[in-house]
C-alpha cells in the first residue's frame, strides 16, 4: 500500500515525535503531501530523560518544522493568534514576510481607539513621574505607576460595562515585583474591580489569555517624587 499512498493526514500531531513522522515520509516513496494537525502543548515530555539530554529526533514534530522552507505550502495557526489583528500584522511583516498570517479567532471587538495613538498598533506607553519605594523585606513598589494603572482601568470600565464587555480575567496587570502586585490588588479591591482584573507577577504567568494587558515596570529613578494628590492637583495626564 505504501507505493499507492500520496496524501497523509496526521491528527493530534502534537503527540508525535519527529522520528515517527520521518519514518512515514521515508516509507512512503510516492508521498506528495503530508498534513500535520495538532497542538504542540499535547506533547508528553517525559521526565525520565532530561530535556537537554533528549535527542532532537524525539522532539515534537511540530517544533521541527522549518517555517521558511519552500516546500511548506500552507500554515494555519489557530490558538497562537488569539490576539489583536494589528499585532498579527506586525509579526507577519517582520518574521514571516512571505506568509499570510490571519487571526482566525480574534478577541471580542473593543473600540479602544481613544486609548491608543495608533489604533492599528494596540500598544501604549505612559511616562510616569516619581521613583520607587522599597517594600520590605526585599521587594519594590511605585505609587505613581500604580495610580496610572488604576486610572487606565477606570477609563476602560467607564466606557465598557463589565456585565457586557468584560469577563473575569479579560484585563491582566503584570508586575515585576510582589510589592507592586500587592499594592495593585489592594487598590483594585478598594475600587471593586478585583473580580474582573487579574494581577500577577511576570514569573507566574502561564497559559493566560487576556485581551488587555497593563504592564507595570516599577523600575523608575526620577529624583522628583510627587504625591498622588499633587499629581491630581496639577492635572497630570495618563
Can you put this structure into words, describing what you see?
The chain is of the alpha/beta class and 238 residues long. It folds into two domains: 89 residues, no CATH class; 122 residues, P-loop containing nucleotide triphosphate hydrolases (Rossmann fold, 3-Layer(aba) Sandwich). The protein is 26% helix and 13% strand. It has six helices and seven strands. The strands form three sheets. It has a three-stranded parallel beta sheet, with helices on one face. Helix 3 runs parallel beside helix 5. The longest helix has 17 residues. The model has no long low-confidence stretch (mean pLDDT 75).
How would the blueprint of this fold be written?
Blueprint lengths: L6 E5 L6 H9 L6 E5 L47 H11 L37 E3 L3 E3 L1 H17 L2 H4 L5 E5 L2 H14 L5 E5 L10 E5 L11 H7 L4
Parallel strand pairs: 1-2, 5-6, 5-7
Antiparallel strand pairs: 3-4
GO cellular component, one term: nuclear RNA-directed RNA polymerase complex
Organism: Panagrolaimus superbus
InterPro entries: DNA2/NAM7-like (IPR045055), DNA2/NAM7-like_C (IPR041679), P-loop_NTPase (IPR027417)
* Fourth-tier CATH superfamily name of the largest domain: P-loop containing nucleotide triphosphate hydrolases
Q: And the CATH topology of the largest domain?
A: Rossmann fold
- Compute the average pLDDT: 75
Strand order of the largest sheet: 6-5-7
Determine Rg (CA atoms, Å).
24 Å
- How many domains, as an integer? 2
The total strand number stands at 7
CATH class of the largest domain: Alpha Beta
Provide the structure class.
alpha/beta
Question: How would you sum up the major sheet?
Answer: 3 strands, parallel
- H/E element sequence: EHEHEEHHEHEEH
Q: What low-confidence regions span 5 or more consecutive residues with pLDDT below 50? A: none
End-to-end separation in angstroms reads 67 Å
Estimate percent helicity. 25-40%
The gross shape turns out to be elongated
Strand content: 5-15%
Q: Which CATH-level-2 architecture of the largest domain?
A: 3-Layer(aba) Sandwich
The helix count comes to 6
Protein name: DNA2/NAM7 helicase-like C-terminal domain-containing protein
Organism: Panagrolaimus superbus
InterPro entries: DNA2/NAM7-like, DNA2/NAM7-like_C, P-loop_NTPase
Domain DNA2/NAM7 helicase-like C-terminal: 71-221
Amino acid at each position: 500500500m505504501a507505493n499507492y499512498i500520496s496524501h497523509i493526514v496526521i491528527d493530534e500531531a502534537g503527540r508525535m515525535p519527529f522520528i515517527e513522522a520521518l519514518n512515514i515520509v521515508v516509507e512512503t516513496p510516492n508521498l506528495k503531501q503530508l498534513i500535520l494537525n495538532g497542538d504542540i502543548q499535547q506533547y508528553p515530555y517525559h521526565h525520565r530523560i532530561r530535556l537537554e539530554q533528549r535527542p532532537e529526533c524525539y522532539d515534537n514534530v511540530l517544533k521541527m518544522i522549518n517555517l521558511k522552507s519552500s516546500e511548506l505550502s500552507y500554515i494555519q495557526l489557530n490558538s497562537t493568534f488569539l490576539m489583536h489583528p494589528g499585532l498579527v500584522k506586525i509579526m507577519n511583516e517582520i518574521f514571516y514576510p512571505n506568509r499570510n498570517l490571519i487571526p482566525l479567532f480574534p478577541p471580542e471587538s473593543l473600540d479602544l481607539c481613544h486609548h491608543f495613538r495608533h489604533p492599528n498598533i494596540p500598544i501604549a506607553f505612559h511616562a510616569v513621574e516619581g521613583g520607587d519605594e522599597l517594600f520590605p523585606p526585599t521587594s519594590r513598589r511605585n505609587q505613581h505607576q500604580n495610580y496610572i494603572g488604576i486610572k487606565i482601568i477606570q477609563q476602560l470600565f467607564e466606557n465598557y460595562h463589565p456585565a457586557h464587555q468584560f469577563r473575569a480575567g479579560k484585563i491582566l496587570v503584570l508586575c515585576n515585583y510582589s510589592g507592586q502586585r500587592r499594592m495593585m490588588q489592594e487598590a483594585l479591591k478598594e475600587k471593586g474591580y478585583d473580580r474582573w482584573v487579574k494581577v500577577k507577577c511576570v514569573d507566574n504567568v502561564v497559559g493566560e489569555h487576556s485581551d488587555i494587558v497593563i504592564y507595570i515596570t516599577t523600575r523608575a529613578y526620577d529624583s522628583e517624587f510627587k504625591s498622588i494628590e499633587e499629581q491630581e492637583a496639577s492635572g497630570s495626564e495618563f
